[in-house]
Write a structure and sequence with these properties.
Layout lengths: L1 H16 L6 E2 L6 E4 L9 E5 L18 E8 L8 E7 L11 E4 L3 E6 L5 E4 L6 E2 L1
Antiparallel strand pairs: 1-9, 2-4, 2-8, 3-4, 3-7, 4-5, 5-6
């Protein structure tokens, strides 16, 4: 009887927790990134999009020409890969996308203001490429 109760409690807990943990781990774009600090939480720079970019999957963000983007990290380019930065869009007209962090090609933006140098090399983790 006691084992049955434990099993029911376990199944209930799993049923309550499982919906909160949905998503998928995507392929890594790089094994290292450059950041302004060890935790990659400080803004490196403010960039302006020179062209539109449509995100190919959930790891990336859409950007529009002229849009301002906060840059938080810069992936270290690896063989046969593009050079991507991680950031989020800025501005009241983009309120529905503000706070969403994703990758975009560095070749499509120009840095407008550097807040801190990206001189810390940090390994990427699976969570860097997690999609909800």
């Amino acid at each position: 009887m006691t084992q049955s109760v434990y099993l029911v409690v376990l199944l209930l807990c799993f049923g309550l927790i499982y919906p909160l943990v949905t998503g998928i781990f995507m392929d890594k774009l790089a094994s290292q990134k450059l950041c302004a600090d060890d935790d990659c939480v400080y803004t490196i720079s403010l960039a302006r999009a020179e062209e539109d970019y449509n995100a190919p999957d959930c790891r990336f963000i859409n950007i529009k020409k002229g849009q301002l983007i906060y840059v938080y990290s810069k992936l270290v380019k690896e063989k046969d890969s593009g050079e991507f930065w991680a950031g989020s869009v800025y501005g009241e007209q983009y309120e529905d996308h503000m706070g969403t962090v994703g990758y975009f090609p560095s070749s499509l933006v120009s840095e407008q203001h550097v807040y801190q140098e990206a001189n810390k090399t940090v390994p990427t983790t699976d969570i860097d490429f997690f999609c909800e």
